[in-house]
TrEMBL record:
Keyword Transferase in record: yes
GO biological process: cobalamin biosynthetic process
Protein's membrane topology: Multi-pass membrane protein
Name of the protein: Adenosylcobinamide-GDP ribazoletransferase
Enzyme class: transferase
Organism: Pseudoflavonifractor capillosus
Domain of life from the UniProt record: Bacteria
């Protein structure tokens, strides 16, 4: 269970036991990354249910739904999104982009892209119709699926730097075993989402798959591989895309 507590301490602001970060525990920590998504998803499900029970309007429901996964993670993935936006917006060489990722300063591209992203994500949540319990379940599983896919990318793609925090977790891993574990997370989550609601669940899974392939192609082309910041960027893009397509699928289901 050390690996679980390490993942919880590293990827969330939730209370976690203090354990020794030994090599064996680190080798399995990334496989518990989706468990952080379960915590965020449980809170998200409860909030959606509560908002519906109290008859709250779409703006408040959307604002809190947007903030829950960010609050659970402590904003580390938004930070990665902002760093990546600065790097991509620089149009510099690969080496310079990697330097920008490590720079703690916030540039104009980060501020602009983060603002646009939050507006779009908020608007996507506002477009979600008053959800049924099945749709709430689909939306609650989006943080789990995004983290499962992020973990899979980390153990299948080259590390752009060969060092850094992501390398600390992936270096001691048995990547073949980790791929199987993360694939089980992904498959279980995707199947559950589609079974809960073929329309919204299927749309969310499709959005996640599209975001994943974009992430892999972009990371390889622009940076030569993945990093921790790029993983955060992917999580934010993936979760926004899933909510957006789920909302559109709700409308399409009504029209058809």
């Amino acid at each position: 269970m050390k690996s679980f507590w390490i993942a919880l301490a590293m990827y969330s602001k939730l209370p976690a036991r203090r354990v020794e970060w030994d090599k064996k525990s680190l080798s399995w920590a990334l496989c518990w990354f989706p468990a952080v998504g379960i915590a965020a998803g449980a809170l998200l499900f409860f909030w959606l249910w509560l908002a519906q029970a109290l008859g709250l309007g779409a703006p408040l429901r959307a604002a809190v739904a947007l903030l829950i996964p960010i609050a659970v993670s402590g904003g580390i993935h938004v930070d990665g999104f902002c760093d990546t936006a600065d790097a991509l917006g620089s149009h510099q060489t690969r080496e310079k982009k990697l330097e920008i990722l490590k720079d703690s300063h916030t540039g104009a591209f980060a501020v602009f892209c983060c603002g646009v992203y939050l507006i779009l994500f908020f608007a996507a949540w506002c477009q979600v119709e008053t959800p049924s319990l099945e749709t709430m379940g689909v939306l609650a599983l989006t943080p789990v699926l995004s983290r499962s896919l992020s973990g899979l990318a980390a153990v299948t793609q080259p590390n752009a730097r060969g060092s850094g925090l992501l390398a600390t977790f992936t270096a001691p891993m048995d990547c073949a075993k980790a791929q199987v574990v993360l694939a089980v997370w992904i498959g279980s989550c995707a199947i559950a989402m589609v079974c809960l609601s073929p329309w919204t669940g299927g749309a969310a899974v499709l959005a996640a798959a599209g975001s994943f392939f974009y992430y892999i192609a972009m990371s390889r082309r622009q940076f030569g591989g993945v990093t921790g910041d790029l993983a955060g960027y992917f999580l934010q893009v993936c979760e926004c895309a899933m909510v957006l397509l789920a909302a559109l699928a709700q409308r399409a289901e009504v029209l058809l």
